[in-house]
Amino acid sequence: MKVRFAPSPTGLLHVGNARIAIANWCLARRHGGHFLLRLDDTDTERSKPEYAQAIEEDLRWLGLDWDGMVRQTDRLARYAAAAEVLKKSGRLYPCLETEEELAFKREQRQKQGRPPIYDRAALKMTKEQLDRALANGKSPHWRFKLSHTSVEWQDGVLGRRSVKLPSLSDPVLIRADGSFLYTFTSVVDDLEMGITDVIRGEDHVTNTGIQLDIFTALGGKGDAMRFAHLPLLTDSDGGPLSKRTGAVGLRQLRRDGIEPAALVGYLAALGTSGDPVAAMPAELAPGYELSRVSHSSARFDLKQMLALNRKHLHGLPFAAVQALLPEGAGEDFWLAVRGNVDLFRETRDWWDVVAGTIVPLADAADHDLLRAAIETLPEEPWDEATWPAWTGALAASTGRKGRTLYLPLRRALTGEDHGPDLKVFLPLIGRERALKRLTLAAG
Ligand code: GLU
């Protein structure tokens, strides 16, 4: 098995790209195959080295690595050679229509109730007409002459699929400026690199029909490659996932502090009937199967992904986060706080509550309680028995219990209404700080 993930470095990766990358990687790893990173960068105007670098970084963050990397701009000579083959066999033909002419033709056809496909007028051009145009400084773009057939394949996700080539325009493979289009370069690469499985988004289904036709014209065997198209992701309302919102870009999610395992586990389970489990690709690969992915589009719900992130953090052992915790924070802190954070970076705020400065909160109605609390504040050493003993004694002396007892103490000691178990937090805060906070709060 040899697969490729082929992003165009014309922008940053989003969750839809990540899902495709994960699928390719997991299948390659599961079957002992080869995973290639291919940068589809022939659109030199829109491709940027910064994006290429960001793509690599984002893939690594997801826990993906690659066995080889290819840049299409390094292979221009190969595409030129392949184009010659198609020109010789008459499958690639020069066209001189301008954008305006083409738009006009499309409009005419539509008015006549005919599908707006290219009429192949350029095929009727004589050699003399072409030579004259070239001599006048015109440069042609080149179209691939599609076969008059339907192309069929057994899709790894969508089942039996076919594309009727006669209902499509002959695709432009080379622009007038000589640059190659992805539709073509991708086929040359897949063929020459011996790609066995093309796994990509459903938006490429029509391309598959066209590309299989080009593949065959270049001497490839129609059944040499398997195809699988993952249905597109939608947002939580069922609308298209928009790159513009930025909320679904990997960079953004990473900056927001999402754990890669949560994102990977969530994406891998999307569109399947399985419950998402946070896991890195290496853990998912052994059981990864495309046949579990359903035919219909899947919703990417940021809230569900956050819930998984939270669940994941909740179960993380101290050893997994030790190096990332603030200086001085130990296992007791982590175990107390991990169930109270949506994002890992919130642990920093909780560490401030323990060891930094907070603004204690208190209502005047609670000043009496807080004064009593100061008077009965036990001497150190403190441990997890301190809080229950102290609050037990306060309950007995003040007659307060439950929320009316615990909430004012929590607000005074942490400046928050909710938070980790004070049984663990109180000893971490320590007597000196606790006393200072209670005194401030008691007015
Ligand atoms: N560069 C194409 C894209 O990003 C690659 C599609 C493919 O996998 O062939 O959509």
Automatic annotation (TrEMBL):
Keywords of this entry: Aminoacyl-tRNA synthetase, ATP-binding, Cytoplasm, Ligase, Nucleotide-binding, Protein biosynthesis
Enzymatic reactions: tRNA(Glu) + L-glutamate + ATP = L-glutamyl-tRNA(Glu) + AMP + diphosphate
Keyword Iron recorded: no
Any one biological process term the GO annotation gives: glutamyl-tRNA aminoacylation
Enzyme Commission number, as recorded: 6.1.1.17
Leader peptide range in chain numbering: none
Record carries keyword Flavoprotein: no
Annotated ATP binding sites: K243
Assembly, per entry: Monomer.
Family membership: Belongs to the class-I aminoacyl-tRNA synthetase family. Glutamate--tRNA ligase type 1 subfamily.
Entry-linked NCBIfam families: gltX_bact
Biological role: Catalyzes the attachment of glutamate to tRNA(Glu) in a two-step reaction: glutamate is first activated by ATP to form Glu-AMP and then transferred to the acceptor end of tRNA(Glu).
Name listed for the protein in its UniProt record: Glutamate--tRNA ligase
UniProt source species: Falsiroseomonas stagni DSM 19981
Lineage: Bacteria, Pseudomonadati, Pseudomonadota, Alphaproteobacteria, Acetobacterales
